Amino acid sequence: MVSLWDYWRRARTPVARFDASGGSSSYAIELTRRAPRISLSEQGAASGTLRVSLTWRMRANDLMGGKNHRKLNAWRHPLQLFRPAEVVGHTQGMVDVDFDLACLYELNDGSKGVVQALGDLLGDFNGPPYLKLSGDDRFGGGSGEVLYANLDYQEEIKRLLIFVYIYDGTPAFDRADVSVTLDAGNGTHVDIPLTDPSPQARSCAVLLIEHEGGDLVARREVKYVYGFQSEIDRLYGWGMAWGRGSKPSRLRR
C-alpha cells in the first residue's frame, strides 16, 4: 500500500524515461508542474557545454482547418475521433508563425542582457555572457534553434532565464507542440514541454537556471505572457530598458 507521503514524494521527482531506439539507450528527465526542479550539479552537468534546443511542430488538425475539419471528416471515418491529433512537419505556406528561443542573463558582476536573434544579440561563448545563439529556424525542423551555455564559467553566472517568443505571425502556442531541451556533455538530457498554452500568448518563460545552496539548479517555469521581452522582464524583475528591434536578414529562413 502506498502512503500519502510516498505519493507526494514521487510526484515531486522528475519523470525519468528510457529510450532504447537505434540499439542504444539514453536517460531522459522531464520537468513537469509536479516535478519542476533538477540539480544540474547532482547530475554532473554543471560544467562544459550545455546545449539548449527549441523544437516545435504544428498539429495536423490545425494545419488542415482545425477542429471543424476533424469533426466533418469523422462523419466519414468515425473511428478517427478516438485517434490523437497527428504531429507533422510544415512549411511557411501552411502556417504563419515563428517561434524563437532567447535567454535573459544576469552575471555576478551585475551586468544584465539578453541573447536573441532579434537585434542580432547572439552572445559570446568564450566571454561574457558565456552564451551563444546559433540559428533561427522558422519551420521547427529537427535541428531547430540552439543556445550554447559555457558552464565552465558557471561561477560568473547569477541566473539565466530561457524563454520562447513569437516574433512573426499570430499567437500559436496552443496550435503547436513546443519543447525546450537541455543536453549536457555528460549525456544528461532534460525535456521541458510547453504544456497548457494560453491561446493569445506571444511569449513563454520556460526555464530558470540559478545557484541554490551551492548547486546549479534548473527550474521549470512555463509561464505564458501576452507581451514580449519587456513583459517577461517585469515578471522576473530584470530591470532592463527595451526598444523595438528586428532580425538581421541573414538569420531569416
Automatic annotation (TrEMBL):
State the protein's name.
Tellurium resistance
